[in-house]
Amino acid sequence: MTFIKCGVIGHPVSHSKSPIIHNHWIEKYGLSGKYEAIDIVPEELRDKIKSLLDSGYAGFNVTIPHKETIMALCDDMDDTAKKIGAVNTLYLKNGKVIGTNTDAFGFIENVKRCVPGIDISHRPSVVLGAGGAARAILSGLIGAGANKIILLNRTRDKAETLAHLNSDIITVRDWEVRNGVLKDAGLVVNTTALGMKGKDPLAIDLSALPNDAVVSDIVYAPLMTDLLKAAEARGNKVVTGIGMLLHQARPAFEKWFGVLPDIDAILEAKVLS
Ligand code: ATR
């Protein structure tokens, strides 16, 4: 069996949960390989990637701050990465370095597994935030059939820029009206870091939200954010953020190892501990 080397590239990167996830799967599926956290400063990105690939690495996950700059270092990008405008995974195909992005898949797959049968086409989705995570989530929602998305961000200009992904579907509203736009929503997604341990809370009043709407958070530390607790307390279904992290890793693993892995309770517990 060929020994397959891969890893996550970022700066800083020691906090990354990806090694736990991928090494769990290497062991679970009896594969031969290792997945490492590799710290690379932006100035050295090009040279380091080349030398790692030359030394036999099969590919990488790419995280902050390299997700956009890495695009210039790919020989090609697939349609998903082009649409999202960011790359989170590199793999080799016929000797070429291909960039893809698995975050949209990770988000949608998580929502669908947590709320089987969810139909996001019949009511608006409300997306809070317009950073890197929002780009992938908007793209995932559109790919999954969303007809209307209301996008709100503290800095409205950033939301306007993201709305260009599909201006027929995405409507930008001011951050200040976030409570009111919940009135007809079928899905609410927090894509900001607000509510994360050590960050400011997400100030939002869910009173207007229909009881059958789904509330999703990309923050997973804590797993039950104040947003999700408030949603659950009033009867809304909630989707925690850990699933997106786990599901986005699956197609990347498949690119390198040829096996589409699945998530089990042991893996979830390892990542949350
Ligand atoms: P990333 O690209 O990794 O997602 P980011 O660009 O820092 O991270 O985006 C974080 C998101 O959280 C942004 O939408 C940001 O809003 P701005 O574009 O106005 O900066 C949002 N955010 C961060 N702190 C916030 C706060 N105190 N109130 C409202 N939104 C906040």
Write the topology of this structure:
Layout: E1 4-10, H1 18-28, E2 33-39, H2 45-54, E3 57-62, E4 76-77, H3 79-84, E5 89-93, E6 96-100, H4 103-114, E7 125-128, H5 132-143, E8 149-153, H6 156-163, E9 170-174, E10 187-190, E11 214-217, H7 226-233, E12 237-239, H8 242-257, H9 265-272
Residues 129-133, 153-155, 158, 192-194, 200 line the site of 2'-monophosphoadenosine-5'-diphosphate.
Summarize the structure.
It contains 9 helices and 12 strands. The protein has helices at 18-28, 45-54, 79-84, 103-114, 132-143, 156-163, 226-233, 242-257, 265-272, and strands at residues 4-10, 33-39, 57-62, 76-77, 89-93, 96-100, 125-128, 149-153, 170-174, 187-190, 214-217, 237-239. Strands 2-1-3-5-6-4 form a 6-stranded mixed beta sheet, with helices on both faces. It has a 6-stranded parallel beta sheet with strand order 9-8-7-10-11-12, with helices on both faces.
